[in-house]
């Protein structure tokens, strides 16, 4: 890593190239910082003479840039990317057009129309702050920033620019310095809460819910498991589930397809005998290639349909108290007539309902009876109090494992994270006991030295 040292009235930049120290000396700190950025952009594979030449030649050029704009660069870079699907390419293009190219905040010119060699760290920082001011959540900003960073980093590799201006910002993914808390917090259910959630669903969905929490699988992986991926136990081994593939989004307008899983390409997960016994009836007698979890017609489960038609219904049932049902939305009223909206009736989208009321009541037929979205306001036990999503079952599974003392690396492999640092970043807050253990070990070690 290159470093800057102040020596009297000058600044010296030092780095190593091919085992030898390289030095450049500058009359101003701004030149030194530029030299440091240049050395690091080349991953230190540049000698001092070339750094001098590039920076001094740049200083002699006129300020008007003739370089391509950032938009023009992306129009070359994005079609050339080889390790993404057409759907991802289309998503990247939409993010660039809608959120990165246009002017934001007080900017008169957007990043898209700025010459790529004129984009500075200040421009990137102003863009990040404008994203926040527009109401974008931290994770959303991180995704857009990552795309911006990748495009500029590719420009460095192709020697279109000398350094990536994103490296000149203090941006930290998913975080704001004041609180370092993202708006979307995962939900970790306790064992008791999961049991309450499960009880709210029709029994035919219990194996699927057990599978999600028992394997830590992503939705795209769980719904791609075929019957042959359920491996029976032997005298020497536990049953296993093979997470070898996942559903991928194709190009816009094209169907989803089966591809490799995210992170680690394949995982063979040992599972409990109870889980194996729960899913085996779904696989029994089915030909190879049949999806383990499927619709009545044998096709894959669609997340949106499942969430709207199954998940929300089961979740609401778990959040309602049988002893304190929600009140009827319609009230008897002698002589009531007209429209449901006349008495406060609304559709699902919140707009006034124009259907005619039932005679003698204040609601139409569809809006009569208890509100299906109502949740219990009582303090009775046996009622789920937290809203969650199917993906939170993956978070819940990880939380159960970590709280039981399973090593982080083992949990990371089970989750399919490519790096353990990803697991630590997401679930590090669930390991307070780890800090206690560190203090205990250090305390015992230091006490031993004193004795």
TrEMBL record:
Residues 184-440 form the Tyr recombinase domain. The keyword DNA-binding applies. Keywords: DNA recombination, DNA-binding. The keyword Repressor does not apply. Transmembrane segments: none annotated. InterPro entries: CB (IPR044068), DNA_brk_join_enz (IPR011010), Integrase-like_cat_sf (IPR013762), Integrase_catalytic (IPR002104), Integrase_recombinase_N (IPR010998), Tyrosine_recombinase_XerCD (IPR050090). Belongs to the 'phage' integrase family. This is Integrase. It comes from Polymorphospora rubra.
């Amino acid at each position: 890593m290159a470093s800057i040292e102040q020596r009297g009235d000058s600044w010296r930049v030092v780095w190593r190239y091919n085992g030898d120290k390289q030095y450049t000396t500058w009359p101003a700190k701004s030149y030194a910082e530029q030299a440091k950025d240049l050395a690091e952009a080349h991953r230190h594979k540049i000698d001092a003479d070339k750094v001098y030449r590039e920076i001094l030649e740049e200083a002699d050029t006129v300020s008007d840039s003739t370089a391509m704009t950032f938009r023009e660069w992306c129009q070359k870079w994005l079609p050339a990317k080889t390790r993404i699907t057409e759907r991802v390419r289309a998503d990247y293009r939409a993010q660039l057009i809608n959120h990165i190219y246009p002017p934001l905040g007080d900017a008169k010119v957007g990043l898209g129309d700025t010459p790529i060699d004129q984009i500075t760290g200040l421009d990137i920082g102003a863009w990040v702050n404008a994203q926040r001011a527009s109401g974008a959540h931290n994770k959303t900003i991180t995704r857009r920033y990552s795309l911006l960073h990748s495009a500029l980093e590719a420009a460095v590799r192709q020697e279109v620019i000398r350094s990536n201006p994103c490296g000149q910002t203090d941006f930290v993914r998913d975080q704001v310095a004041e609180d370092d808390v993202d708006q979307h917090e995962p939900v970790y259910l306790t064992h008791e809460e999961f049991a309450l959630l499960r009880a709210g669903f029709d029994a035919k969905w219990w194996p699927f819910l057990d599978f999600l929490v028992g394997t830590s699988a992503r939705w795209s992986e769980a719904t791609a498991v075929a019957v042959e991926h359920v491996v029976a136990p032997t005298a020497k081994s536990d049953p296993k589930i093979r997470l070898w593939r996942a559903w991928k989004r194709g190009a816009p307008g094209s169907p989803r397809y089966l591809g490799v899983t995210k992170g680690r390409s394949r995982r063979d997960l040992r599972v409990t005998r109870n889980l194996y016994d729960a899913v085996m009836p779904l696989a029994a007698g089915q030909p190879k290639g049949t999806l383990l979890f499927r619709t009545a017609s044998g096709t894959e489960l669609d997340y949106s349909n499942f969430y709207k038609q199954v998940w929300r219904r089961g979740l609401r049932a778990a959040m309602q108290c049988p002893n304190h049902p929600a009140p009827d939305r319609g009230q008897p009223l002698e002589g009531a007539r007209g429209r449901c909206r006349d008495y406060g009736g609304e559709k699902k989208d919140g707009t006034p309902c124009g259907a005619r009321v039932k005679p003698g009541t204040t609601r139409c037929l569809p809006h009569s009876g208890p509100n299906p979205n109502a949740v219990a306001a009582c303090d009775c036990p046996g009622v789920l109090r937290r809203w969650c999503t199917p993906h939170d079952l993956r978070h819940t599974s990880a939380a159960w494992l970590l709280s039981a003392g399973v090593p982080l690396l083992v949990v990371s492999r089970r989750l399919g994270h490519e790096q353990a640092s990803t697991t630590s970043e997401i679930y590090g807050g669930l390991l307070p006991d780890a800090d206690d253990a560190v203090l205990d070990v250090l305390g015992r070690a230091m006490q031993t030295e004193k004795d």
